[in-house]
Amino acid sequence: MVEKFRVGLSGYNKEDVNKFVADVTAEYESLLNKLKESDEKVQSLEAELVHYKQLESSLNRAIMLAEETTNNIRKSAYDESRVIVDDAKKNASRIVNSALLRAESLERDNESLRRKVASYKKRFKDLLEENLDELDKIDETL
Fold this sequence. Notes:
Elements: E1 7-8, E2 11-12, H1 14-141
Antiparallel strand pairs: 1-2
């Protein structure tokens, strides 16, 4: 803002200079007010920035804690599943072994019964043959 003042007998026109000074003062005060408003706005934004940084930090901690908790839960679930599977394998093995022992026992019992039946049949057959021989002898004597 370049201002040209009118020149009078005793120098520059006081009215022009005073008007210029008043304009410069008004402009200066306006700029000063804008600067104060800008400073207040900057301070307010800086305070918000600090708040948001704290919020970001809190959220990051919460996310890290959630991830850690998730990992712990996964590990715990995996460990528990391994224990369940191991127990199931042990129980299955025990059940299979028990069934095999029972099957072997039944097989022995079955074989024993077969031998007893065969022995009984042989004795019965021998007894029948003896009785038939006795009957034949009676027939011959008659």
